[in-house]
Write a structure and sequence with these properties.
CATH superfamily of the largest domain: HUPs
Bound molecules: flavin-adenine dinucleotide
Structural class: alpha/beta
Distance between the termini: 55 Å
Helix content: 25-40%
Largest sheet: 9 strands, mixed
CATH topology of the largest domain: Rossmann fold
Number of domains: 2
Strand content: 15-25%
Shape: elongated
CATH architecture of the largest domain: 3-Layer(aba) Sandwich
Oligomer: single chain
Low-confidence stretches: none
Radius of gyration: 23 Å
């Protein structure tokens, strides 16, 4: 019989992020798939009081926490020691953790301490021929694999967006504290410096993916490019909708000597050689919708595009709706409507 340990950690606000709650939901599903396998939960963080309350009602036999100032911020030595202690206390054969930067950094090291095995980017589980298998993609989501391992403990990190997050239910799960001896560290965390949330254009948890293509920088009806106007329209749209920003390869590859969008980086690129994000909706603008780009839309459920060209790639079964229109005009109008709506409902 397998024993499952599901790991979570707090964010700066003391809460569990969505990806951790998704991991908990996946762990409860796995528990039923395995015929009621024992499930344990672990939380890692500075103050975990609020995080623990978010896990009420989880059908777990125990909730263990490693908390205190040394565990408030991510640091290899303390995080690895905390995960090791949680795993030792549980004696788990299977460890599930969300693929957050914090766990992704330490999971392989912890597996090595137990002579276990690790798999990352896992999308789901199934039992075949009596043995547990994990599903994941390779080669940029083009090869789907199902694999099993005999070695235990087996540590896996889970992709985000594969299931709905756990929502607290009635029930009480009292945290048990796991005490650790002092951990020698060479790194002192003095603080966290990061851009304001609205300065960050890649927002994995956004409801909408807004993709900008190279058309935003191309000469328009007056034979001149309007990159400054494009920047203003796109940034205003992002500010009003909190959408995540993606770009086509042609746009992110632009360098000096031609009109560029200054906030666009290679990190924004969607597609075969870019990323494959998961958002419920996507809106493509000034992008032709060629195959190497649209493969990156595989997990976008509802797709719409705005292009002046009625024969663009989106029209060939790649989008649910194609608006044949000038994106400059459409986005300016949408921004105006969003502004009006905000005034009506302050
Ligand atoms: C091996 C390989 C890997 C690749 N990987 C990727 C990848 O990961 N991601 C990726 O994106 N591409 C990738 N590409 C490139 C891809 O094939 C396309 O060249 C690229 O996606 C085109 O970008 P685009 O549609 O933004 O630009 P363009 O092809 O230049 O299209 C611009 C579009 O803007 C429209 N437009 C212009 N002005 C307006 C306006 N005012 N309103 C509305 N529409 C307007 C035009 O009609 C046109 O359709 C790859 C190619 C190869 C060979």
């Amino acid at each position: 019989m397998e024993t499952i340990l599901c790991l979570t950690h707090t964010e700066g606000d003391g809460k569990l992020p969505r990806s951790c709650l998704e991991a908990v939901a996946t762990a409860t599903k796995l528990q039923s798939t395995l015929g009621g396998a024992p499930l344990e939960l672990g939380i890692l963080g500075g103050d975990v009081t609020e995080a623990a309350s978010m896990l009420s009602g989880v059908p777990a036999r125990v909730l263990r926490v490693v908390s205190g100032p040394p565990f408030a911020a991510s640091r290899y030595a303390t995080d690895a020691a905390a995960v090791e202690a949680l795993l030792r206390a549980s004696g788990a054969t299977l460890v599930l953790a969300p693929h957050t930067p914090r766990f992704a950094r330490v999971i392989a090291g912890v597996a090595q301490r137990f002579q276990g095995r690790v798999d990352t980017h896992v999308m789901g589980f199934s039992v075949l021929g009596g043995s547990l298998h994990v599903d994941r993609y390779y080669y940029r989501q083009r090869i789907e694999a199902r694999l099993s391992r005999a070695q235990r403990p087996w540590l896996v990190t889970l992709e985000s967006g594969i299931t709905a997050p756990w929502t607290a239910a009635p029930g009480e799960l009292r945290p048990e504290h796991v005490e650790l001896a002092e951990i020698p560290t060479r790194t002192e965390v003095k603080g966290v410096s990061c851009p304001a949330p609205d300065a960050q254009t890649i927002r994995p948890e956004a409801h909408l993916l807004f993709v900008a293509g190279a058309g935003w920088t191309k000469p328009q009806a007056d034979k001149r490019p309007h990159a400054d106007e494009a920047e203003k329209l796109i940034l205003e749209f992002l500010r009003r909708t909190n959408a995540s920003l993606g770009g086509s390869k042609s746009l992110v590859d632009l360098t000096g000597g031609e009109a560029v969008l200054r906030f666009m980086t290679h990190m924004n690129q969607i597609g075969q050689t870019g990323s494959t994000p998961r958002h419920p909706k996507g809106l493509s603008t000034c992008c032709h919708g060629e195959e190497p780009h649209t493969v990156g839309w595989r997990f976008i459920s509802e797709r719409r595009a705005i292009n002046k060209d009625a024969g663009c790639g989106w029209a060939r079964g790649k989008a649910d709706v194609l608006y044949v229109a000038d994106a400059f005009e459409v986005i300016a109008r949408v921004n105006a409507l969003l502004a009006e709506e905000r005034q009506e409902k302050p």
